[in-house]
Design the sequence.
């Protein structure tokens, strides 16, 4: 058990006219090596929730345990936590600042206090991992395309070799190709290094394709925490929260209603293909 | 964290003060500040205090919220009061080594402290009850006659409203970038001056880039909607005085009249 949330509440601008109870009584356990999806309508509190995981915001009430230690303890080292829980923000390309791509990615490992060589090796690996070719390493990060900037920013976190990687809508505003590339690389990372991954997204297809378990937020509360298939089988409830199941799930349901004997708990196109072929061969 | 700065912030509430015309509130605040400096006698300040307290009550802005604005200037306040207390020459009433407090010093320090406090309270009450848009509208209308002497009134008002609009946006942006860099192990708090100044680079560069990007977007959006300055431009909600505004002007006059009467009576005594 890597991360445990115990009755976490968070109130923005507490005590003013703009007070907002963004997170309500969240209980949650994330295990080592999981690939978890976090979905919810705009403003449901996803970004607020994940910022608790590396101690960037401190809960108004409740406790968080990381690897068994209470992160709100007096002598807990929050900076160390931040090197173990890597958080890639929404639109991370807005945080680039260095004169070259390499230097920018190198910023994180340098802050960890590693020796120069080790930091550079990690930078090198991270850039390779996200598929940024060597010809771009000396370019200014501001000259890159949107998708390339996004990769550089993600590399900036990967270079710190976190145990847990949290991504807040890493594919927002990218073209379908760029989206698949990034998610594919994250998935490979998960399989090869066993890194725990939490993916925040608005795309049901993305979660269906990659994650094992889904957390659903609605108006600040955690309303579902179940395996992917179970969550999408409750798509009627999801719709009431302005969410939906993947489109193939709807197609399978429609086929079933037309009298085909197909399973309806299908969430990816590939599964759907196999299921339909099976039915046709009968 | 950064968002707790309240100076110049609007506090939404449903009160008469909120609904008053911004021109009136600008004039009123101006008169109030002048009255603070001209009627600095004991009875004068009683009247000023009564006035301020009743306006705050009517505005429905909680007092602790307004008082938060004072926290930002507490250092200046203490400084002024201490200096006035110890450095005013006159009739000594207390002595400790080279420090001495005089009767005049005590009086002066008290007035100075109260005056500064009222100044902050009064002007923040205006910004608490008036949205930035209303404020610039009011200012534009008040200064409108100045265009005859070639003052670019509309442009000034437009710049002011854009600047005001950008403050919360930039604060939010700073907050976000700060968090993003902290997630990459940035440390903004420890170290000497040089190290701290250097640690600000990862914050300032993205902040400037984003400010320029936003400014560019805004200029583009304004052009796309055919903005071409104030010439012939009309307003969706033109400022118009209502009955309550005339009543408020009367109350302001009354306030000044009372202060003048108090002053004259004090002179006679
Ligand atoms: N810095 C802030 N100050 C005040 N309120 C905030 C702040 N950030 C978020 N909120 C409020 O908290 C609530 C949750 O916001 P949050 O950003 O966590 O939502 P989200 O689920 O990430 O939404 P999105 O999908 O649009 O990114 C929203 O109602 C938002 O208005
Ligand atoms: Mg968000």
Sequence:
């Amino acid at each position: 058990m890597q991360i445990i949330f115990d009755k976490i509440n968070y109130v923005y601008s507490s005590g003013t006219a703009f007070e907002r109870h963004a997170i309500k009584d969240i209980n949650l356990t994330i295990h080592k090596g999981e690939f978890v999806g976090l979905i919810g309508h705009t403003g449901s509190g996803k970004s607020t929730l994940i910022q608790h995981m590396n101690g960037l915001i401190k809960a108004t009430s409740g406790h968080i345990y990381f690897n068994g230690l209470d992160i709100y303890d007096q002598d807990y080292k929050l900076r160390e936590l931040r090197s173990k829980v890597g958080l890639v923000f929404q639109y991370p390309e807005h945080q680039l600042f260095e004169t070259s791509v390499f230097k920018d990615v190198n910023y994180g490992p340098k802050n960890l206090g590693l020796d120069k060589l080790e930091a550079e090796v990690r930078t090198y690996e991270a850039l390779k991992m996200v598929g940024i070719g060597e010809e771009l390493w000396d370019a200014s990060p501001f000259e890159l395309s949107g998708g390339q900037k996004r990769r550089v920013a993600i590399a900036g976190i990967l270079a710190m070799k976190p145990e847990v990687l949290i991504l807040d809508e890493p594919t927002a505003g990218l073209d379908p190709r760029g989206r698949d590339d990034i998610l594919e690389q994250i998935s490979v990372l998960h399989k090869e290094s066993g890194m725990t991954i939490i993916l925040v997204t608005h795309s049901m297809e993305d979660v269906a394709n990659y994650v094992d378990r889904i957390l659903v937020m609605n108006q600040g509360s955690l309303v579902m925490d179940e395996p992917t298939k179970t969550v999408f089988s409750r798509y009627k409830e999801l719709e009431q929260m302005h969410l939906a199941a993947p489109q193939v799930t709807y197609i399978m349901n429609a086929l079933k209603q037309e009298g085909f004997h197909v399973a309806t708990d299908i969430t990816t196109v590939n599964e759907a293909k196999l299921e339909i072929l099976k039915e046709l061969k009968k | 964290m950064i968002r707790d700065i309240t100076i110049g912030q609007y506090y939404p509430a449903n009160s008469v003060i909120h609904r008053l015309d911004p021109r009136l509130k600008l004039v009123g605040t101006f008169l109030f500040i002048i009255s603070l400096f001209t009627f600095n006698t004991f009875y004068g300040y009683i009247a000023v205090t009564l006035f301020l307290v009743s306006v705050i009550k009517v505005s429905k802005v909680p007092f602790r919220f307004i008082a938060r604005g004072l926290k930002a200037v507490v250092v200046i306040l203490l400084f002024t009061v201490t200096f006035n207390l110890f450095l005013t020459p006159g009739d000594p009433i207390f002595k400790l080594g080279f420090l001495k407090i005089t009767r005049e010093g005590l009086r002066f320090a008290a007035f100075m402290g109260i005056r500064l406090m009222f100044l902050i309270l009064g002007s923040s009450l205006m910004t608490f009850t008036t949205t930035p848009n209303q404020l610039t509208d009011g200012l534009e209308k008040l200064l409108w006659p100045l265009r005859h002497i070639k003052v670019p009134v509309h442009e000034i008002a437009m710049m002011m409203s854009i600047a005001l609009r950008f403050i919360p946006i930039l604060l939010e942006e700073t907050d976000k970038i700060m968090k993003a860099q902290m997630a990459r192990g940035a440390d903004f708090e420890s170290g000497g001056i040089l190290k701290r100044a250097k640690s600000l680079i990862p914050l300032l560069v993205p902040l400037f880039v984003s400010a320029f990007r936003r400014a560019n977007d805004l200029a583009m959006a304004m052009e796309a909607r055919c903005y071409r300055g104030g010439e012939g431009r009309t307003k969706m909600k033109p400022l118009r005085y209502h009955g309550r505004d005339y009543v408020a002007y009367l109350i302001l006059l009354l306030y000044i009249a009372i202060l003048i009467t108090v002053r004259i009576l004090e002179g006679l005594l």
Q: What stands out?
A: The first helix of chain A runs from residue 46 to 53. The mean pLDDT of chain A is 92. The first strand of chain A starts at residue 3 and ends at 12.
